[in-house]
Amino acid sequence: MHISEGILSAPVLISGVALTAAGTAIGLKRMEYDRIPEVAIFSAGFFVASLIHIPLGPASAHLILNGLLGLFLGWATFPAILIGLTLQAVLFQYGGFTSLGVNCFNMALPGILCHYAFRYGARSQKPALSLSASFLCGFGAVLLGIFMVAISLVLTGRSFLDVSKLLLIAHFPVMVVEGIITLFCVSFIKKVKPELLEEIYAR
Fold first, then answer.
1. Of the ranges 64-73, 93-102, 191-200, which is most confident?
2. How far apart, in whole angstroms, are the C-alpha atoms of residue 130 and residue 141?
3. Contacts of 107 (CB under 8 A, 6+ apart)
4. Per-residue pLDDT band at 92 (split at 50, 70, 90)
5. Are 182 and 68 in contact (CB under 8 A)?
6. Under CATH, which number does the domain 10-202 receive?
């Protein structure tokens, strides 16, 4: 879901920088010192998972894991994704620096919204509820992210409306895969380190 440089208008780019700066400031303020290794691990997972891109016009399709990050990191999703995107821009020229703010906001905010929507269900001791909430968290974060990318493109120009529809269609398999990945990760963590799920309320 990286939007390339030279695509978005200046007002959209400036708004993205401001919103990402605000989200990152909140994330850093709420992030305790002893959680830095955890955030770093999730940021590394995001970085690796989103390296393989399928070009789709001004954007691209790839794994995001923003639902998984959002569920476990809460507001720390902003600095985690910002670090991953910055490294990708520096090392592989994915996205770019001018669109960094918009790209980060479009990926991080859906993860945080899904954190608040599904954290209680994911933590539930009822297997059906936990698995459903985990899947919807991964699926929904990508879906919301696509809508935000579409809004960013449409705000720049109506000519991107068809591209926005293509992005939604092309990312449907990604939504399903992300839902399944989030589901399995939550199930695994419940078995090996359930306290991580106990801590997500404070995030």
1. 64-73
2. 17
3. 1, 64, 66, 81, 85, 145
4. confident
5. yes
6. 1.10.1760.20
Contacts of 198 (CB under 8 A, 6+ apart): 123
CA distances from 137 to 18, 60, 193 (A): 26, 21, 20
Q: What letter represents residue 106's amino acid?
A: N
Question: Are 121 and 67 within 8 A, CB to CB?
Answer: no
pTM for the model stands at 0.88
**What are 125-172's pLDDT values in tens digits?**
898 999 999 999 999 999 999 889 888 888 887 666 676 677 777 778
- Two structure tokens written together for 198: 């106990």
Between these two residues, 145 and 173, which has the higher pLDDT value? 145
- Backbone phi and psi for residue 6, each to the nearest 5 degrees, phi listed first: 80, 10
The one-letter code for the residue type at 91 is L
74 is written with which tokens? Answer: 């809460």
CA distance 3 to 96: 8
